[in-house]
Design a protein that fits this description.
The chain contains 10 helices and 6 strands. The chain is an alpha/beta fold and 221 residues long.
């Protein structure tokens, strides 16, 4: 690792267990991403893009993969589907809560679920988008530039016991690069677009727990 890369890595909001991957990609795919972003009005802010990489690689139990960050300013946090505070909300997060309510039948879910999803992160869940940025107000605009890096992320995660939940077609396009247990379902926004239940009724959260060989995830704490 050269000195310049070491300095960059220490300033990124990532766990040191990811340094090997990032060191390699700073001279490859990430260099291209950073150059591209310099001329783009994007979200989320640069210093939080990699927040989901705060989990040590050895602690990753589940990887939930969405499409890309919320395109509106001040919503995206670097964790797929999460919002900054309990006062924020987004349609896809509401659909996620609807599925949790359907599964667990607890009416307090809508009020009390940690909308920052830090409680999920702390249990070993990576909340990864297929694209870590997008243009402001324009979804799915940076998918091509991030794809090579996201492929390398999946290759870096070598534990076959990890459960991958691929939500929607963008996430599912990475399936061939995954060495683990895979669950596929619709993206939560599909329920909004089609005005019907597709994600709701998928049993995604109970299915993840069924595939985990050790501790289950407490989705609603």
């Amino acid at each position: 690792m050269n000195y310049e890369n070491k300095e960059v890595l220490e300033n990124l909001n990532i766990h040191k267990s990811w340094y090997e991957l990032f060191d390699k990609e700073l001279n490859n795919s990430l260099e291209k991403v950073i150059n591209y972003l310099q001329d783009s009005n994007f979200t989320p802010e640069l210093d939080i893009i990699f927040n989901t990489f705060l989990i040590p690689v050895s602690k990753v139990k589940v990887v939930i993969v969405g499409q890309d960050p919320y395109p509106q300013p001040n919503y995206a946090t670097g964790l797929a589907f999460a919002v900054p505070t309990q006062d924020h909300d987004r349609p896809s997060l509401k659909i996620i809560r609807n599925e949790l309510f359907r599964c667990y039948g607890d009416i307090t879910i809508d009020v009390n679920l940690d909308r920052t999803l830090n409680s999920w992160l702390n249990q070993g869940i990576m909340l990864l988008n297929a694209s870590l940025t997008c243009e402001m107000y324009k979804s799915n605009t940076h998918s091509k530039i991030w794809r090579p890096f996201i492929i390398e992320v999946f290759k870096y995660l070598k534990d076959k016991n990890i459960v991958y939940a691929l939500l929607g077609s963008k996430a599912q396009s990475f399936k061939k690069y995954i060495n683990g247990q895979v669950i596929e379902t619709y993206h939560p926004m599909y329920d909004i677009y089609k005005k019907n239940n597709y994600f709701v009724g998928s049993d995604i959260f109970s299915d993840i727990n069924l595939k985990l060989k050790e501790t289950n995830i407490d989705w609603i704490s």
